[in-house]
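Per-residue structure
===
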Amino acid sequence: QLQLVESGGGLVQPGGSLRLSCAVSGFTLEHYAIGWFRQAPGKEREGVSCSSSSNNSTYYVDSVKGRFTISRDNAKNTVYLQMNSLKPEDTAVYYCAADALCKFYSDYDTIFLHNMKYWGKGTLVTVST
């Protein structure tokens, strides 16, 4: 049974850092793309980052570029999201998800991460003083 379990969320002050982990089981990580999504209170879920299975390519939504880094350790079946310079607007429940590919759609000049097939239950990140 395919499972994804997030961990590493918590309360952090603005400007601080957190590293989220997504532990996967029931499938071979190296064959799947892994995405991170987030949903803030009262807002729609948005795709934050994605790591491709095939060519190590990565995607970041504009609002986190230069601050967040996605990485994977296929031997440990774990994907990480390193989040630096956190802002209050980063507060959300963060989910990891899996699919065969990172898929995208565009709205004018902006590229967005499409929903993925398999999902974890999420971990809460709160950025506040």
Observations:
- The chain has a mean pLDDT of 95.
- The longest strand covers residues 18-25.
- Residues 55 and 118 are 21 Å apart (CA to CA).
- The two ends are 40 Å apart (CA to CA).
